[in-house]
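Write out the 3D structure for:
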Amino acid sequence: MNVLAEVQGKSLVERARQAAAVAGQFADDVDREGRFPHEAVAAMKEARLLGIQVPVHLGGEGASIADIAEISSIISQECASSSMIFAMHHIKLSSEVEHGIGDAWHEGFMRRVADEQLLIASSTTEAGIGGNLRNSICGIEVEGDICRLTKEATVISYGEQADAILITSRAHPDAAMTDQVMTVFLKGQYTLEKTHDWDTMGMRGTRSEGFLFKGEAPKEQILPQPFAEIAAESMLAVCHILWSGVWYGIAVNAVARAQDFVRKAAKANPGSMPPGALRLAEVSSKLQLIKSNVIAGLQKYDEAKANPASLTSMGFLVAMNNIKLASSQGVLDVINHCMLIAGIAAYKNNTPYSLSRHLRDAHSAQIMISNDRILSNTSNLLLAHKQNTSLLG
């Protein structure tokens, strides 16, 4: 049996746990040093996890977004930065899978992702537009068969470590700010001049630095659909779901540490209820709410995929926004309760119950696409849309 067949003979969950175990070994060092998790990403590549979303006929495994959310949560239980990199890679790959089929160059690119386990980064933010990814200042220039782009990208997560970057811009220099395209640039087709460092409270391993991006590539690397369609029909929903999977994984590990703390206290004092036991029961219900929220998002996405017209409906957009809001808020609530359960043992670093890294990583959740921006968008949608309150969908 060759190596590829041996790896793919294992289940996705087995392979995810294999990568997660490596990520866990280096998680504290990655966080402390604020460095890219080379070991974890190498383990993901060894487990052939970066190409699983690619359709089978292009050399991938046709993994669903539910599969990828599950893997995100498994890796996140050991290292949230590593898991976020995995999730962001697959968010960008989803744009190719959903909008690149039928195009020779993009199908070839997907084959390469599956075969070579290429790591994909994203550049949607830009100096001067804040966090509004549906606006661009820069415009791609097409001359003959070549396209060129210069962009002041305030954030490109793991940009220096990526094998390719999917980057947004105006469709041409004179286009409206909202008339955007997304282009794939391969390593070697662009340069990155660092403009902002990444020294943050949490998610330190994602290395989300700022760069001046300059690229030149064949124009066929521009995705054929407008970015407005890509964002509405796949990217935003997949983003909210996979990020929620990452945050759920952080919460799972926090609860596991709190549970271990209570169990140890119970063994030390047989016959008496440990002080944190009731809070453990309470936090279990809060964890279940996050899980239910993510599952609801996956179900809603699958239903919409079966009826593509609903992918751009107000009801679907409201539902996806709510998935992100609830998960990003719920993870902090869970961790705060776990801190109360384990007390000083959770507050201190370098104990089996430490939650410092969990808490700092989780605080990114509400500002990665700001919750205030999402609430504003949802409030506008609700002016015209009556929310579905049926329990049956």
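The first helix runs from residue 3 to 8.
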